[in-house]
Amino acid sequence: MSSETNQDRVFKALAAPIRRDLLDALKDAPQTTGALCERFAPLDRCTVMQHLKVLEAADLVIAHRKGRERWNHLNPLPIAAIHDRWIGPYAARAVEGLARLKAGLEG
Question: CATH fold of 1-75, please?
């Protein structure tokens, strides 16, 4: 059995809608864990912290303490790596195919 890669952890982290929502919340600016707990109020603090742990394990969130607060920052590099490895090459093939189809229909 192979060990889990960082890309596996990224896909696992992105599989849960709440974790994608947490990343969206961090997209524009870092936030404290307390602010994230308030924003996702239907969930208790422990649940939010568990989801943040999964995001940290995938290196999607970087957390650091500043005084009594824990600040969470979005790390976009793993998402860029997923794009470069999976999305970019597949999208390029699809665009090439559509361009050939368009040229065939027009010519």
Answer: Arc Repressor Mutant, subunit A (1.10.10)
Per-residue pLDDT at 2 exceeds 70? no
Tell me the per-residue pLDDT of 56-83, one tens digit each, with 9 for 90 and over: 999 999 999 999 999 999 999 999 999 8
Contact between residue 105 and residue 27 where contact means Cβ atoms under 8 Å apart: no
pLDDT value at 46 more than 60: yes
Domain boundaries, the chain: 1-75, 76-107
Spatial contact of 48 and 98, defined as CB atoms under 8 Å apart: no
Angle at 25 between CA 19 and CA 27, to 5 degrees: 105
